[in-house]
Design goal:
CATH topology of the largest domain: Pectate Lyase C-like
Number of strands: 8
Oligomer: single chain
Structural class: alpha+beta
Largest sheet: 2 strands, antiparallel
Shape: elongated
Distance between the termini: 43 Å
Strand order of the largest sheet: 1-2
Strand content: 5-15%
Amino acid sequence: MIDRDSQDFDFRGENLQGRDFQGENFQPFYVNYRDTRILAQFQGANLIEVNFQEANLYSAQFQGADLRNANLQSAILRGAGFQGADLRDANLQNADLHEASFKGAKLHGANLIGCQDYSIANWTNAEYDSKTQFPDGFNPYKYGLIKTRRRGESVTRKSKEQVTDELHTKINTALSEIKKSIQKRQGQEKFRNALITYYEGRCAISGCEVTGVLEAAHVEPYSLSKNNNPNNGILLRADLHTLFDLNLIVIHPYSKKLEIKPALLLNEDYKKFHGITLPSYQDNIWSPDDYYLKWRQDNYEKYIGQFLR
């Protein structure tokens, strides 16, 4: 039985593989009659083969969690967040999906038959395959899902070392493809020197001041815009430049909050940046213009993301 205590609702990053939570109540509650709303937090947790059948998971947060083969049959998932979660072969049959978000989730082989209120859930860029079972009348194209091939992978949880090695391989391969597709940048040295001046010789994210490892990154790719305006640039440490190019590090246009994609959250060197405000912006030094950040947010997949597949 789960106690209704704020600490008992925090499962972030925990290994809960195979646990039985059938019928448990994870509904949000308020602490000490204040406006502090406590939600069940499962972000990044290992939830492989966990049993959530008929559980109340109202507004629970599962971003980046591993829910392969999990049982969510008839669960209350109203307002729950599954952004970037791995739900391959999960059973969501007859679950209540009112305003749940599956943005970017993996749904290969998942069973969604009989789900309620699926039409007002967010399915943007969720991935599925020919084995995914949808409710009657569900049109994946209409709701913005993407059909992809399932990548071969063992059902057992991979070690951090394996995940890190595979991530490095993917980054190196994808970056090579991106660079092959982009025309040789003109005026790069001048652009870099301008950014070093504007960012006071510091990486916009890490604050690194070692000039030799600082690189000039374009927000809107130079190959498309031919734009070397410093407002379209950000000065980054070399590794952060690579991750920014691959959209594994995202800067939200108006808040300037950093989003570190789930694949990087296993690495403490990058996890520490998740959710913070871009330091160069917070310190009133310099930051990319909102216009270019919004362009990248809206157009990355169309112009760049295709090379990651």
